[in-house]
Amino acid sequence: MSSALKRVSRLTCWKGAVEPRPLSGGITNQNFVVEDAGERYFVRIGDDIPVHGVMRFNELAASRAAAAAGISPEVVHHEPGALVMGFIEGETLDEARVREPASLERIVPLIKRCHDEIPKHLRGPTLMFWVFQVVRDYAGTLRDGNSRMLAALPRLLELSSTLEREVGPVQLVFGHNDLLAANFIDDGERLWLIDWDYAGFNSALFDLGGLASNNQLSPDQEAWVLGEYFGAPADAALMRRYQAMKCASLLRESMWSMVSEIHSHLDFDYVAYTDENLARFESAWSAFQARNSGGA
């Protein structure tokens, strides 16, 4: 039995003996489903991850506030390194499902509720997630760890600084900051948003850009999402700022994976994930340059 499995089995919240079942798909934590006294629970095992800015006190506060806002399942129990929540019976979305118009019509209001409602329920200190500081810190971590990507860092940092200037001043909301398809669950009646590892105050543009970049939305879909979120079609200035933040979200995902290559012990092909996201970033950056230099 793995140490994580033992840890789950010994949590003090269980009413009887349990047999945790590992869940596949996590690329940051180890996840399990547990049945206890006729009820099913989701259990996340993971300590603080300083190299990624993941602090469990922040995840707990965001998870509780998201549950109070009706966005995420109830937090049932927590101990250092462990979080127990109600288990959602439903379908985990994939990128193709996110891109369906009917899904986007449900996702955009959910994101807006996250941004607007969670702060009303937050208690205690919480973090801010500023992608450009994340990128700068990742670069330092990669240098410290003698990453295979060292030669690429000066250019990536220069591009990040350019994108930060293009984003300009922002209005803060409470962001999820990790809008991968797998963090949406459809229970047949409603959508849930889960996994608050990277939650924190941020610009709405980061979540909107992350939704698009992580799920490969088309330009028409991106324009629709912006119009729905802001209540009016995006003008040229907003579109430029949004596209810059979209590029930044892809750069952050790429550098997250670079750091995970040298620090994560999970069984996941981070090198392939780095290469995939870098390709997406370079494509988005080229499109941003063309769009804002009089090109197509």
Question: TL;DR?
Answer:
With 296 residues, this protein is of the alpha+beta class. The protein has helices at 3-9, 56-68, 95-99, 101-117, 131-144, 153-167, 204-215, 219-230, 236-263, 270-291; strands at 21-23, 30-36, 39-45, 75-79, 82-86, 91-92, 172-175, 184-186, 191-193, 200-203. It contains ten helices and ten strands.
Helix content: 40-55%
Strand content range:
5-15%
Unreliable stretches, pLDDT < 50, 5 or more residues? none
Biggest sheet, spatial arrangement of strands: 1-2-3-5-4
Structural class: alpha+beta
- Measure the end-to-end span: 56 Å
From the spread of the alpha carbons, the general shape counts as globular
Mean pLDDT: 94
Instruction: Output the number of helix runs.
Output: 10
Q: What is the total tally of β strands?
A: 10
Description:
The protein has 10 helices and 10 strands. Helix content is 49%, strand content 15%. Strand 4 and strand 5 (82-86) form a beta hairpin. The protein starts with a helix and ends in a 5-residue tail after the last helix. It has helices at 3-9, 56-68, 95-99, 101-117, 131-144, 153-167, 204-215, 219-230, 236-263, 270-291, and strands at residues 21-23, 30-36, 39-45, 75-79, 82-86, 91-92, 172-175, 184-186, 191-193, 200-203. Helix 4 (101-117) crosses helix 8 and helix 6 (153-167) packs antiparallel against helix 9. It is an alpha+beta fold and 296 residues long. The radius of gyration is 19 Å and the shape is globular. The longest helix is centred in the C-terminal third of the chain and has 28 residues, at 236-263. Strands 1-2-3-5-4 form a 5-stranded antiparallel sheet, with helices on both faces. Strands 6-8-9 form a 3-stranded antiparallel sheet, with helices on one face. A two-stranded antiparallel sheet has the order 7-10.
